[in-house]
Amino acid sequence: MMNVKECYEMFGGNYEEIMRLLMTEARVIKYLLKFRKDTCMQELTKALKEERYEDAFRYAHTLKGVSTNLMMERLVVSSCELTEALRHNETDVEDLYNNVKEDYDLIIEAIRCLEEE
């Protein structure tokens, strides 16, 4: 049985800070479920595959912002690194993307575990 605190621990988030900001676990869950339904990561993947780096930058930047707002600290770091590389017109970003994908997938798995409760 997973609760919100365990969910945040699983994906390397800051539970205390998100609770300070949103005040109730119900609100946190509401936004975690919205995050899970968001297509930003899929669009980022597609943009990179199609070498649309300007679009990829926008999606990475959006992911960085959302993860910052939800206190998803590991994803904040990895998406920030990808965003900055793309901002500087780097195109060899596969390793940075893989870090983002790994962090994102861990968050999605944690949210799924939370939903099953």
How is this structure best summarized?
The chain is an all-alpha fold.
Report the biggest beta sheet as strand number plus sense, adding barrel if it closes: none
- Return the CATH class: Mainly Alpha
Order of helices and strands: HHHHHHH
Give the overall pLDDT as a whole number. Answer: 96
How many DSSP-defined strands?
A: 0
- CATH fold category name: Four Helix Bundle (Hemerythrin (Met), subunit A)
Strand content: under 5%
User: Roughly how many Å is the radius of gyration?
Assistant: 14 Å
The CATH H-level homologous superfamily: HPT domain
Characterize the overall form.
elongated
Structural class: mainly alpha
Oligomeric state as shown: single chain
Low-confidence stretches: none
**End-to-end distance:** 6 Å
Q: How much helicity do the residues have?
A: over 70%
Q: Give the number of domains.
A: 1
Count the helices. How many? 7
CATH architecture field: Up-down Bundle
Task: Identify the notable features of this structure and list them briefly.
117 residues; Four Helix Bundle (Hemerythrin (Met), subunit A); HPT_dom_sf; HPt domain-containing protein
Structure description:
- This protein has 117 residues and is mainly α.
- It is 79% helix and 0% strand.
- It contains seven helices and no strands.
- Helix 5 (53-69) packs antiparallel against helix 6 (73-87) and helix 6 (73-87) runs antiparallel to helix 7.
- The longest helix is centred in the C-terminal third of the chain and has 22 residues, at 94-115.
